[in-house]
Specification:
Blueprint: H1 3-13, E1 17-21, H2 22-35, E2 42-47, H3 54-63, E3 66-69, H4 72-80, E4 88-90, H5 97-104, E5 109-112, H6 115-124, E6 130-135, E7 157-158, H7 162-172, E8 176-180, H8 190-204, E9 212-214, H9 232-250, E10 255-258, H10 262-265, E11 269-280, E12 285-289, H11 298-302, E13 308-310, E14 318-324, E15 332-340, E16 347-350, E17 371-376, E18 379-384, H12 389-393
Parallel strand pairs: 1-17, 2-3, 2-10, 3-4, 4-5, 5-6, 6-7, 6-8, 8-9, 9-10, 12-14
Antiparallel strand pairs: 1-11, 11-12, 11-16, 13-16, 14-15, 17-18
Helix pairs in contact: 2-3, 2-9, 6-7, 8-9
Binding site for substrate: 298, 302, 329, 356
Pathway: Amino-acid biosynthesis; L-lysine biosynthesis via DAP pathway; L-lysine from DL-2,6-diaminopimelate: step 1/1
Family: Belongs to the Orn/Lys/Arg decarboxylase class-II family. LysA subfamily.
Length: 405
């Protein structure tokens, strides 16, 4: 997408607005599949929670992707987008047995990460194969909120509890058809990932009816120039060899599965905002924009840094700005950032806005959620309308207080 095209999108659809580049999503998908082309059976399950717009899901379905879901609603979205049930895996955390049983009726692959739920499910549905999510006790992730494989994590069944799993399987007669792990997001060191993979392989040896091994994801994408990213190509080379060797020892050709979210859509997204005001204080120049953490919470929640570019003044002299939102709390997107000179009315573009941006947005301060636009085949397609005041009131029920009775 050229800057002129982004400016036209902001003009045509208003600001703020999320814009996604379909070509970039496809590039990332092909990059991952090419890195593991040496695996006979590879399955990519896109993590719906990263960006759940149904048009994006349909786009990924057209590439041959499956999906990873964490709620019954995401499963329903996947089915509505055209994914067959056998290309959907359900990996919830802390949900009720009733929700898992409801999803089971839809025919998708179930992934369980709780001994109690595993035992209850196995006792009631011994003929339904399930996957088990283990916790390898490996710390990975760029922030404590996205590190999910450490010993104090709520996710997965501890590798030290494998004997308990085996006892449940024996007592219930249930079948375990997959083993899964996820260490966390923003993996920097592939050796850590490979070490965790060895734990997955060791666990898998103890189950005789496996069909797949799911290695999760968490691959880091670059957020700024010269930033570190996961070396997918090197990981592909090393893990492919190890996986193929394991399959030979296991005596069966298994499927290698991943569940990338951010890796596929993060770099494809840009978030466009308009500068409402430039405010000079005694120590800081604020660029105040028509958005806030109700639309992009990641800098406040994770401390993430998004490159911000003034696409209205590409050749302007750089100055230092703190870019802040309009929410009545501190909602700072960037502190003292070098950006081309900003004037009121300029359009700023936030990079890496494809993952966990719209999907984590809210109506805080009763603000509307923005529109979403997909750039596909050199054309802008509106894939979600901007909310209106009617949307804010839609599910609210008014009480009549005029009567004294």
């Amino acid at each position: 997408m050229e800057k002129s095209q982004l400016l036209k999108i902001a003009q045509d659809y208003g600001s703020p607005v999320y814009v996604y580049d379909a070509e970039k999503i496809e590039q990332q998908y092909k990059r991952l599949t090419n890195a593991f082309k040496g695996v006979k059976q590879l399955k990519i399950n896109y993590a719906v929670k990263a960006l759940s717009n149904i048009s994006v899901l349909k786009l990924l379905h057209s590439f041959g992707s499956g999906i990873d879901t964490v709620s019954i609603q995401e499963v329903q979205l996947g089915l509505a987008a055209g994914f067959p049930a056998d290309k959907i895996i359900f990996t919830p955390n802390g949900v009720s047995l009733e929700e898992i049983e409801t999803v089971t009726k839809l025919g998708v692959q179930i992934n369980i990460d709780n001994l109690s739920i595993l035992e209850q499910f196995g006792a009631k549905h011994p003929n339904i194969p399930v996957c088990i999510r283990i916790n390898p006790h490996i710390m990975a992730g760029g922030n404590a909120n996205i590190s999910v494989g450490h010993i104090d994590s709520k996710f997965g069944i501890s590798v030290h509890q494998i004997p308990h799993i085996l006892r449940i399987v024996e007592n219930t007669g249930m079948t375990i058809n997959g083993i899964h792990m996820h260490t966390g997001s923003d993996i920097l060191d592939i050796e850590v990932f490979l070490y965790a993979s060895e734990i997955l392989f060791d666990t898998a040896k103890q189950f005789k009816d496996l069909e797949f091994l799911d290695f999760g994801s968490g691959f880091k994408v670059p957020y700024k120039k010269d930033d570190i990213e996961t070396n997918i190509e090197e990981l592909g080379k090393k893990l492919t060899k190890r996986f193929n060797d394991f399959c030979k020892d296991y005596g069966k050709e298994l499927t290698l599965a991943f569940e990338p979210g951010k890796f596929l859509v993060s770099e494809a997204g840009q978030f466009l905002v308009k500068v409402n005001a430039v405010k000079q204080t005694t120590s800081t120049v604020f660029a105040q924009v028509d958005s806030g953490f109700n639309h992009l919470i990641r800098p406040m929640l994770y401390g993430s840094q998004h490159v911000i570019e003034n696409i209205s003044n590409l050749k302007g002299k750089e100055r230092f700005y703190s870019v802040v939102g309009y929410i009545c709390e501190t909602d700072t997107f960037a502190n003292n950032r070098r950006i081309n000179e900003i004037n009121e009315g300029d359009i700023l573009a936030f990079k890496n806005a494809g993952a966990y941006c719209y999907s984590m947005s809210s109506n805080y301060n009763s603000r509307y959620r923005p529109a979403e636009v997909l750039w596909h085949n050199n054309k802008a397609h509106l894939i979600r309308k901007r909310e209106t005041f009617e949307d804010i009131l839609k599910n609210q029920i008014e009480i009549d207080f005029s009567s004294k009775k």
